[in-house]
From TrEMBL:
This is LysR family transcriptional regulator. CDD domains: PBP2_OxyR. Residues 2-59 form the HTH lysR-type domain. Keywords: DNA-binding, Transcription, Transcription regulation. InterPro entries: LysR_HTH_N (IPR000847), LysR_subst-bd (IPR005119), WH-like_DNA-bd_sf (IPR036388), WH_DNA-bd_sf (IPR036390). It comes from Roseibium aggregatum. Transmembrane segments: none annotated. GO terms for molecular function: DNA binding; DNA-binding transcription factor activity. One of its GO terms (cellular component) is protein-DNA complex. Belongs to the LysR transcriptional regulatory family.
Length: 301
């Protein structure tokens, strides 16, 4: 019978397309990993991996086996997590993924409160764009993700935390200063935004559904900090989320901020796999994050 260890080796090869790196991932020697892959192929009577001196690739059947193997490994891990959760649900490692426009502006300030309630919980934070976070969660690489809605999340279980509105950021020496009217930004306004792939890029353009806001295609940033720097140099205007502003993103007076109370906010949420054994822990973490945010600034859940 095939073993989980063999499947683990195969999935590592699929992820790295390199036997040496796959062996490092599995914490075994390369000969041990190669032997495990060979044993799996012999057991099944088919070739799963094509290997030359220069490249490694999976056969078509190998791809299918990897997909099924991931599911089996995830279920096996879920069994272990289930047992551990029943023993000590608030202990152990927790792999939390967060989008870059939320994680660094919420998690650090919330950590003391989280540690107070879960002193034996080790929180590992990883920042990625939303699509990568969802993939990491469904594949078992992450336990919990912190994202912004709307975004297609499939069958994941979601709990909403709070709404995050925007302010208009303009150069500090703008003459005359840019002041948003009662309807916010006007149709045709061009914004400097994060590069495509960041959900905030899409959310900002949808802040006023009845206005046709456009992105300044001459420039896109990889971080909110870069956006602030560009605006401060007089290169354009942008929308900054209140969460980042409240965390001090623009505290040095680099940009002029104008509230946009009529802008459609994004919804900050936690998501996890359905039927997770640590669901109660995740719900408690959601309460703590909401409490931390509400304690800093009133917001509408």
């Amino acid at each position: 019978m095939i073993t989980l260890r063999q499947l683990h080796f195969l999935v590592a090869v699929a992820d790295t397309l390199n036997f040496s790196r796959a062996a490092e991932v599995c914490n075994v020697t390369q000969p041990t990993l190669s032997a495990g892959i060979k044993e799996l192929e012999d057991r099944l009577g088919v070739q799963l991996v094509e290997r030359t001196r220069r490249s490694v690739m999976l056969t078509a059947l190998g791809e299918d086996v990897v997909n099924r193997g991931r599911a089996l490994l995830l279920e096996a891990e879920a069994i272990e997590v289930l047992a551990a959760a029943h023993r000590n649900p608030g202990e152990g490692n927790l792999r939390l993924g967060a989008i870059p426009t939320v994680g660094p502006y919420l998690i650090p300030s919330a950590l003391p409160l989280i540690r107070q309630h879960f002193p034996r919980l080790k929180l590992f934070l990883r920042e990625e764009i939303t699509e990568s976070l969802i993939e990491g969660l469904t594949q078992g690489r992450l336990d919990l993700i912190l994202i912004a809605l709307p975004f297609e999340t499939g069958s994941l279980e979601i709990t909403k935390l709070f709404q995050d509105g925007y302010q208009l950021a303009t150069p500090p020496r703008e003459t005359p200063p840019v002041v948003a009217g009662p309807d916010g930004l006007a149709t045709g306004d061009r914004l400097m935004l994060l590069e495509r792939g960041h959900c905030l890029q899409r959310h900002a353009l949808q802040a006023y559904p009845h206005r046709h806001l456009e992105q300044d295609e001459s420039f896109s940033a990889t971080s909110l900090t870069t956006l602030v720097s560009m605006v401060s140099e007089g290169l354009g205007i942008t929308l900054l989320p209140n969460l980042a502003i409240d965390a001090g993103l623009a505290s040095r007076g680099e940009v002029r901020l104008t509230p946009l109370p009529d802008a459609c906010p994004r919804q900050i949420a936690l998501a996890w796999r359905p039927k997770s054994a640590r669901r109660d822990v995740f719900l408690k973490l959601a309460e703590l994050l909401k409490k931390k945010r509400h304690g800093e600034k009133a917001c509408t859940p």
